[in-house]
């Protein structure tokens, strides 16, 4: 319940930015910090949430995160100015970032290996479906009520989640023992590690979110943040490998299955969030769709995910995860290739079915990756493993959105210039009744340039998915029914 709201918040505010800007007397460009501030704090807390869950206690840490997310949602809805809204969004991102890693480790330690497939299937509904309905729900709430209600709706869900967690969640003995060992001899805090994570990932998220807007290396601001992020992350890798009590267990990354699963989770986030973010933009720029109707095409894909989640949840008990992941990637290849064949006459049903094809492949990626990643890890490492997996998914999404936005802008400009070379005062234009003015012809030129850039983007997404098919097959074998077992 809590993660559904947290993932929803990563996309629900996108369509409400113009209303937020108007309601807080800010420009549209300034209002984008409402998104960036949330992503930055989320990126910082994700990789170190495993350590916090271990030293604080997983149930206690999880409840703190839910409470912080709920309280900050209330404050966001009441924010009088943009500055206060951005500050409260930072708090909301800190609370939300600790939810998914805690929940995945809870699932791993609560259910038997035979039950985990179905448990992850139900959990996956929240993670995969929430981003697809976020734009639709955000647009509908903003159009019919106020942008403040996109934050207020989190509060009753958080209260219900806190009560149910307090009543039903029990810490397993292995988790309590891991906390006892971590606190033996006093609490040892890796202050340099925390600082390097905050600076490195925080600056990286700002770069990915603002890079295209500020022209990347053409901006001193972006260049400075790239240098700071790069140096901090290199120092983090070195420090965490030599310190006695690292906040991030880098040794897990070197294990075969977990390291491969991290790369596969990165690509899953890359493809998923790129399409979720950019497909509605395509429909609104090429077709006469409003935000709500464009968001509905994503919601249609959610039904495909819902149908196949329990099916794949049953399959992971009988089929090697690497084969299921390969199938999921091949479905993404087919889905992206299908989208690359779009034209200016794309209908709503055509867009919805294209999205459904992509969404069907997501359970084949999300569930087997999560169940396979824990194979061979010690019982006390589930907190750290969940934190790193979720960090890779979020980073993949940030890289994907940044890559897609940059490519669309650059390639659209390229095609506009190339097509424009054929138009001169002496160009003979056929069917002049379709182009009654230069303005109408220029509009068609813009539309065709944009269309060609989207086609190229979907081609590249198909190629990236295809490249990772053999990577999935490198995963080590696991016994059917025991994927994800310790």
Describe this structure in words.
77% of the residues lie in helices and 0% in strands. The protein is an all-alpha fold and 486 residues long. α7 crosses α18, α14 packs parallel to α18 (382-420) and α15 (291-315) packs parallel to α17. 48% of the residues are buried. The model has no long low-confidence stretch (mean pLDDT 83).
Kindly report the CATH topology of the largest domain.
Answer: Growth Hormone, Chain: A
CATH architecture classification of the largest domain:
Up-down Bundle
N-to-C SSE string, H for helix and E for strand: HHHHHHHHHHHHHHHHHHHH
Number of helices: 20
Whole-number tally of structural domains: 2
Tell me the span between the first and last alpha carbons: 27 Å
Q: Rough shape? A: globular
Rg (CA only): 23 Å
Mean pLDDT: 83
Concise structural overview:
With 486 residues, the protein is mainly alpha-helical. It contains 20 helices and no strands.
Features:
486 residues, mainly alpha, Growth Hormone, Chain: A, 2 domains, 0% strand
What is the topology?
Elements: H1 2-12, H2 17-23, H3 28-31, H4 33-56, H5 58-78, H6 82-97, H7 99-110, H8 113-144, H9 149-152, H10 154-168, H11 173-183, H12 191-210, H13 220-242, H14 256-286, H15 291-315, H16 321-339, H17 348-373, H18 382-420, H19 438-467, H20 469-472
């Amino acid at each position: 319940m809590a993660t559904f709201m947290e993932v929803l918040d990563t996309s629900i505010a996108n369509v409400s930015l113009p209303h937020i800007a108007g309601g807080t007397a800010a420009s549209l460009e300034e209002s984008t910090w409402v998104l960036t501030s949330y992503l930055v704090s989320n990126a910082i807390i994700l990789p170190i949430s495993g350590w916090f869950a271990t030293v604080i206690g997983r149930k206690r840490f999880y409840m703190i995160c839910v409470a912080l997310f709920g309280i900050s949602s209330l404050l966001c809805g009441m924010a009088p100015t943009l500055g206060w809204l951005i500050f409260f969004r930072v708090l909301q991102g800190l609370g939300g970032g600790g939810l998914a890693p805690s929940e995945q480790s809870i699932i791993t330690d609560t259910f038997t290996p035979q039950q985990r497939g179905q448990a992850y299937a139900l959990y996956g509904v929240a993670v995969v479906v929430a981003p697809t309905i976020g734009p639709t729900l955000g647009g509908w709430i903003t159009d019919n009520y106020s942008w403040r209600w996109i934050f207020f709706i989190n509060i009753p869900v958080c209260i219900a989640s806190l009560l149910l967690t307090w009543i039903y969640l029990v810490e397993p003995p292995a988790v309590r023992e891991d906390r006892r060992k971590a606190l033996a001899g006093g609490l040892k805090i890796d202050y340099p590690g925390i600082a390097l994570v905050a600076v490195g990932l925080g600056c990286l998220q700002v770069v990915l979110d603002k890079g295209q807007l500020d022209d990347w290396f053409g901006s001193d601001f972006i260049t400075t943040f790239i240098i700071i992020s790069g140096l901090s992350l290199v120092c983090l890798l070195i420090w965490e490998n030599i310190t006695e009590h690292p906040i991030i267990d880098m040794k897990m990354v070197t294990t075969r299955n977990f390291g491969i699963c991290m790369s596969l989770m990165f690509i899953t986030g890359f493809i998923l969030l790129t399409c979720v973010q950019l497909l509605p933009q395509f429909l609104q720029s090429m077709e006469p769709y409003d935000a709500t109707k464009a968001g509905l095409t994503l919601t249609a894909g959610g039904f495909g995910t819902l149908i196949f989640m329990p099916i794949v949840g049953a399959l992971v008990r009988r089929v090697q995860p690497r084969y299921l992941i390969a199938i999921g990637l091949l479905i993404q290849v087919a889905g992206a290739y299908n989208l690359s064949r779009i034209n200016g006459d794309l209908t709503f049903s055509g867009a919805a079915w294209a999205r459904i094809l992509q969404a069907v492949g997501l359970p084949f990626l999300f569930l087997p990756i999560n169940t396979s990643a824990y194979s061979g890890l010690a019982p006390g490492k589930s907190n750290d493993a969940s934190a790193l997996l979720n960090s890779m998914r979020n980073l993949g999404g940030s890289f994907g959105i940044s890559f897609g936005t940059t490519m669309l802008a650059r390639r659209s400009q390229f095609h506009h210039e190339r097509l424009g070379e054929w138009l001169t005062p002496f160009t003979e234009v056929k069917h002049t009744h379709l182009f009654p003015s230069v303005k109408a012809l220029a509009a068609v030129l813009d539309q065709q340039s944009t269309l060609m850039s989207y086609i190229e983007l979907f081609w590249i997404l198909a190629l990236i998915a295809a490249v990772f098919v053999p990577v999935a097959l490198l995963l080590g074998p696991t016994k059917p029914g025991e994927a994800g077992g310790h």
